[in-house]
Amino acid sequence: MMLFTRIMKTTLLSIVFMIFSIAVNGQSINEVMYDPVSNDGVGGEYIELYGTPGTDIGCYMVSDGDWVVVIPNGTTIPADGFFVIANAPLVDGDSTDVDLDVSTCACNSDPNNYITLTNSGEFVALFDNAGNILDGIIFEENVVGNSNAPSGQVLTPTNPGLCTNGDLTIPSLANLTSPPAPWSYLGDNVVDGSIDVVPDGSDGWGDSSTQGVMGNSMGATNAVASCSITAITLNNISACNNLGTADSTDDQFTYDVTVTYNNAPSTGNLLIRLYDANGTQISAHPIAFDPNQTSVTVTDLIAGTIDIADLTITAVAQFSADATCQITNTNAGTSPAPCSVACGLGSFLGVDCLDQGTECNSDDVISLRVNASNSGAGPTNQYNVIIAGTTYGPYDYDVQNLIPISPLLSASESVTITDVDNNACTSTNNIPLNGCSAYDQPPISVSSNSPLCEKETIMLFEAGGAANVTWAWTGPLGFTSSDQNPTIANATPAHSGDYDVIVTAPGGCTSTQTTTVTVNPLPVVDITTPDTSVCDSSGSFQIAATPAGGVFSGPNVSSTGEFDADAASAGTYSIVYSYQDPATRCTNTDTINITVTALPVVTAGG
């Protein structure tokens, strides 16, 4: 994606090179004049940048390792995309094409206010305002890594305007077999000629001894919009997850990544890689992207942890379809602290039992004695003890701890010791925690037929099933019984309450349990119609009763209480009204007597 340069050179003897560069942040070095015919070393050199028009390049820096120029704050790329840094006026070029005059800007650390470039070869690099390299070229070198390459120079810039740049540190490329992106490298150039991008679409470098005008056909074949990745940022870096193991090699953390880009390839993936401070890769993920968009965000990517906490993470984004379109962020975040701890857990378990001077273990007092040590203990230096699903602790290592056990457990109980900082570091043993006296408590199971209604019989049950035991029942109204399953006839509401039973086994071991009995009162039922006498053939009448909702029964009466005297012969009839309380289901009745008298027989005449 080479673009035509703005400065039109007129001298064949000037040595110039033009660079096609996939710049890390969208800006690249487009042209460098390092061997001008006129004013060589005293103001004739220039550097031309290329970028997206309107892009803010304020406080960006250009350097060759001997001097550094800081582009003034608020500077943007001109409308034609080219930005020329030089001493104005240029002898070998049109002075109106100089965008930043380094002789007057107060932004050049060179004491003579020149940008002096060595004809025998060196490097030129472009940096953002944080000192991150965006583009670089090493030229006139026979061997990669010789004296022309950056060697870790530290320069103090002269800061114009509102720029607050600190010292610029240029990373060393000495002794490398090939320069890393975004650096480019070119060996010896031709004398009295120039170098340019090869017009074969490869974006490589080549020589041109007939270069007379910059921007000729050498670069024309690539005059299309260039792919660029402008930023890669990491967010939501999680704490370390040890995956429940003591193996530090499976420790991991998650992170979110956002990449912004322009003119992305239409195929392939966006490769995301993370490196630790030693250059060891800790994460690699190909992610999908939309070439019609300018950014992509992916959450919860997984990375392996770094052996030491708080080390700087380097993040790299690169398109798989265009390996030259990439970005490197050398300060993308810091790694979380490792979380797996080597496990060296050992323990001593003992049991203390006090029988309280009885033969029954129901009053035994059990204490588990634990003395644990761990050569790989975490920072809290403590452990927990888990017994029958209950967690006790935390306790300090290398100190004997007594753990009271209640209630008594089994004759072989699992006891697990777990490091507080590493739940994968455990030790498990089986130990009896069932008391030390001769006799166990007898089993006990108490119930009743509650609830019941007044005048019914209370039935109490004990069904523990132990042999050779005795029972001692107590309850309301002074109730006592030594029966296993006692009863109380004709119960009243006053019999409601708790009924306790003590089951005593040999050795004096006892078990006690309670059942609660409820005796509900009968509902109050009243037939309000009094006993009465009627004549036969006198028709029917309604019998009244409370509460409503009950049922009448008896001769010549309906369920709703209508008595039919016409259907009755002479005699006395008992009528019953029955009512059930819907809440307690208790039923009560009331009765009346109805006497039916036959009419006298009357004879006429006589």
Please, could you describe this protein's structure?
- A 5-stranded mixed β-sheet has the order 1-2-3-6-7, with no helix packed on it.
- It folds into 5 domains: 1-226, Sandwich (Immunoglobulin-like), CATH 2.60.40.1260; 228-334, Immunoglobulin-like (Sandwich); 345-431, Sandwich (Immunoglobulin-like), CATH 2.60.40; 446-520, Immunoglobulins (Immunoglobulin-like, Sandwich), CATH 2.60.40; 526-597, Sandwich (Immunoglobulin-like), CATH 2.60.40.10.
- It has 1 helix and 45 strands.
- The protein is an all-beta fold.
Summarize the structure.
The protein has one helix and 45 strands. By secondary structure, the protein is an all-beta fold. The termini are far apart.
Fourth-level CATH superfamily of the largest domain: Lamin Tail domain
* Mean of pLDDT: 79
| CATH fold-level name of the largest domain | Immunoglobulin-like
Cα Rg: 51 Å
Number of strands: 45
Which structural class do you get from the secondary structure elements?
A: mainly beta
Query: Roughly how many Å apart are the termini?
Result: 150 Å
CATH class term of the largest domain:
Mainly Beta
Residue share in β-strands: 35-45%
State the shape.
elongated
* Count of the domains: 5
Q: Sheet bearing the most strands, described?
A: 5 strands, mixed
**Overall helicity:** under 10%
Number of helices, counting only DSSP H or I runs of 4 residues or more: 1
Quaternary organisation of the protein chains: single chain
CATH architecture of the largest domain: Sandwich
Poorly predicted residue ranges? 7-15, 17-24, 189-224
Give me the side-by-side strand order of the main sheet: 1-2-3-6-7
